[in-house]
Amino acid sequence: LRLARAMAAHPAVGAADADALAALLCLHAARLGGRVDGDGQPLLLVEQARERWDPGLIGLGHRYLQRAARGSSLSRWHCEAGIAAEHATAASPARTDWAAIVGWYERLLVLDPTPVPRLAHAIAVGEAQGAAAGLAAVEAVLPLLPAERYPFGHAARGDLLGRLQRPQEAHQAYLRAQAQTRSAAERALLARKIAELGCDAQAAGG
């Protein structure tokens, strides 16, 4: 974060995309205090206590983002900072402007059409347009994601299936995600999501 701010202030490299990168890092750093619970376990964005976010860093991020608008081109840092700003300024998860986030992801995909941002766009579609639309978008990108050690595609599918009242399919999706986890914290988070389904494991297995 200090390096990004120094770059943004330096006359040789302090262009609009440097401001956008500084904005992105400020907005992400602002949420660090809310990312884990009292036991150090990761929390989903919807579960985080927003009063633990740093309002000073959020304000600084917005100022950098406003400065980034002075350029004539749009970088991936502009898009990612725009997404982070929408999350950071929403008063609650229910008041998040998911349509605006979908728009930012669509701009990002013009610059980077690779599978990982496509998955993030699909998840945002699920929030903005409903679980059925999100599931279709996630399933379209799922075959393109890294085959191993990348649990987020199956985890997103599990979440959407759960919202569509399809708990057995959601259970199986979470199990596939669990098999691809890279850390104990990810496994614990997915185990909690499985438990929240209230789905009988034997029935879910077919």
Beta percentage is under 5%
Number of helices: 11
Please write the string of helix (H) and strand (E) elements. HHHHHHHHHHH
| Shape designation | globular
Counting copies of identical and different chains, the oligomeric state is: single chain
Through-space gap between termini: 49 Å
Strand and helix layout:
Blueprint: H1 2-9, H2 16-30, H3 55-68, H4 76-89, H5 98-111, H6 115-129, H7 131-141, H8 152-163, H9 167-179, H10 184-197, H11 201-204
Description:
- With 206 residues, the chain is an all-alpha fold.
- It has helices at 2-9, 16-30, 55-68, 76-89, 98-111, 115-129, 131-141, 152-163, 167-179, 184-197, 201-204.
- α3 (55-68) runs antiparallel to α4, α8 (152-163) packs antiparallel against α9 and α9 (167-179) runs antiparallel to α10 (184-197).
- It is globular, with a radius of gyration of 18 Å.
- 33% of the residues are buried.
Question: Keywords for this structure?
Answer:
206 residues; mainly alpha; 65% helix
Give a short overview.
The protein is an all-alpha fold. The chain is built from eleven helices and no strands.
